[in-house]
Amino acid sequence: MQNDQIVIYKTENGETVIDVKVDDSTIWLTLNQISELFGKNKSTISRHLNNIYKEEELIREATVAKNATVQIEANRPVERIIDYYNLDVIISVGYRVNSKQGTAFRIWANNILKDHLLIGYSINEKRLKDQNEQLKSLKNTVTLLSNVLENKSLNNDEATGLLKVVTDYAYALDILDKYDHQELTIEGTTIEELFIIDYAEAKQAIHDLKEKFGGSSLFGNEKDESFKGSIAAIYQTFGGIDLYPSVEEKAANLLYFVVKNHSFSDGNKRIAAYLFVWFMEKNGILYRGDGSKRIADNALVALTLMIAESKSDEKEMMVKVMVNLINTNN
Fold first, then answer.
1. What residues contact residue 106 under an 8 Å CB cut-off, 6+ apart?
2. Where are the beta strands (DSSP E) in 173-251?
3. For residues 93 and 87, what is the distance between their CA atoms, to the nearest angstrom?
4. Beta strands 5-10 and 26-30: pairing type?
5. 273/252 Cα distance (integer angstroms)
6. pLDDT of residue 158
7. Number of C-alpha atoms within 13 angstroms, CB side, residue 164?
8. Per-block average pLDDT, block size 10, for the chain (330 residues)?
9. pLDDT for the residue numbered 327
């Protein structure tokens, strides 16, 4: 599920309020939300869902969407895949358990979808058109500047440096283009890992950061056990296989988890960014062959802030963007 919008549904008596996802021209609710909507326990709703698909009233593949969420369990981040059921399923369940409530929700949902399609379409159409035109124009400009640098010697060092900076964004623009078209993949990564981070070393690194750059008395003070969970999370396995097999994927997820878990009383984003760079350096992937950093300081700041503001279901794409910015292709 991508680009979902949240709207609020309230029952007539005002006792039930549910955050409803609107996406792909339909309404989506989880099992828990359907249970809350109709005032039935989850086992009852699950039984009706199974019967709906068993009787082939609806096709499961066409009416269920999976959404990855990150949540803290036992003081460590755990990714869970949550099933969301669309409006057809919700109405089918409603007629089986509470036809009146189901009818009320259907009327409300249809009105919401009408507004979403009519208003949202015109807004999104204009926004996409503007973005595509800007991206095309900027890409053409970058290509032109790149050709100038290759074919003409410039005497002005400052002008050459400026053109080089702009040209360096060509790769980032390609990443954003793939992001927009859902074509972004993980490639050009490093499998051989030289350094495995552990909690004690990470704490020492944070202490060194505070000693070098200063910080409040609360800087690096752990509020709970979630920081240990962040470190453990990048080494998770499934069936004996690493969930994050490359160094770049581990580094990207380390940055993500430390930012999102907000484990420290002060300095969370600074600590996350520092550990990200420190982990890359320890594994020999921070610098390119020419000695330049794979990721510029301002790009790291931007990524850290983006992660902090991102939604949990955007994690996979955020990690892909990070990996593409630090892999061997960049």
1. 87, 91, 94
2. 237-238, 241-242
3. 10
4. unpaired
5. 10
6. 44
7. 8
8. 62 70 78 87 92 91 81 71 87 81 76 60 54 56 53 51 46 55 68 84 89 81 91 89 90 93 90 92 88 79 78 82 77
9. 80
Q: Which amino acid is at 213?
A: F
State residue 276's pLDDT score: 93
Residue 9: DSSP 8-state:
E
**Which candidate, 198, 180, 194, places its Cα nearest to that of 320?**
180
Dig out the tokens for 124 from the structure. Answer: 């999104």
**Token pair belonging to 17:** 């309020």
The residues that bridge with 80 in the sheet, in sequence order, are 69
Distances (CA, A) of 329 to 158, 277, 296, 323: 27, 18, 15, 10
Q: Residue 295 has which token pair?
A: 């990721």
Specify the residue for token string 């955020």: 318
Coil, strand or helix at 221: coil
What is the Cα 146 distance to its own chain's centre?
Answer: 32
- Exposed / middle / buried, residue 299 (Cβ in 10 Å: 0-12, 13-18, 19+): middle
pTM to 2 decimal places: 0.48
Q: How many whole angstroms from its chain centre is CA 282?
A: 26
Q: What's the half-sphere exposure (Cβ side, CA atoms, 13 Å) at 88?
A: 13
